[in-house]
Amino acid sequence: MAASVLIASNNAHKLQEFREIFRLYAANDIALFSAQTLGLDLDPDETAETYLENARIKAKAFHNLIRQRSEASEMFVLADDSGLEVDAMEGGPGVRSARYHKAAPDKDGCGALLNALTTVSEDQRKARFRCVVVLLEPDGQEHVFEGRCEGSIGFDKRGTAGFGFDPVFRVEGDTRHLAELSAEEKHQISHRGNAARKVIDFLKNVTG
């Protein structure tokens, strides 16, 4: 029996990535739904200081809402929080990555990040993307999954794919930036791809 999963996010880029990842690795075994497709109007404030707690806030808020709707009461709820951690910035912007973009001049977080690292040498630009996923079963039981993507911050923006910090993130063991990869290449190595594949494996096991 195919599992039904609500993606607890209003971020169009994130929704697209989850759809692409599940299409690649889950085929028809898992049906994805967005808040928009279910007519849900909810945008929880992400006020926590960790990826896990922010993901949990969103997952629980959407889970509580759909419990009131008979047609959605048997859905799993998936929420994630993610960010870029730069060693030279003591792990920042981290959980505040989205806010970093919004606060940057012209909302250009990539440009702001490159400016902040202008004097940082090649060997000190190590960074990683982290993604933490909270999956709630219909009865509320929680499962947590994490994915990482190691790399470094380049010296310019490259590529037109992806979103967020992808244009300045250079993939470990590759000369390309994340925004230069095809969607399929990115999802094989990305933090969200790694976390989502763990979710897919779990769902396939529990739903048979």
Topology:
Layout: E1 3-7, H1 12-25, E2 30-34, H2 51-66, E3 76-86, E4 92-93, H3 97-103, H4 109-116, E5 126-136, E6 142-153, E7 169-171, H5 183-189, H6 191-207
Parallel strand pairs: 1-2, 1-3
Antiparallel strand pairs: 3-4, 3-5, 5-6, 6-7
Question: What does the model show?
Answer:
- The protein has one domain: Maf protein.
- It is built from six helices and seven strands, in the order E-H-E-H-E-E-H-H-E-E-E-H-H.
- The chain is globular and about 55 Å long.
- The protein has helices spanning 12-25, 51-66, 97-103, 109-116, 183-189, 191-207; strands at residues 3-7, 30-34, 76-86, 92-93, 126-136, 142-153, 169-171.
- With 208 residues, the chain is an alpha/beta fold.
- Strands 1, 2, 3, 4, 5, 6 and 7 form a seven-stranded mixed beta sheet that branches.
- A hairpin with a 5-residue loop joins strand 5 and strand 6 (142-153).
- Helix 1 (12-25) packs across helix 6 (191-207).
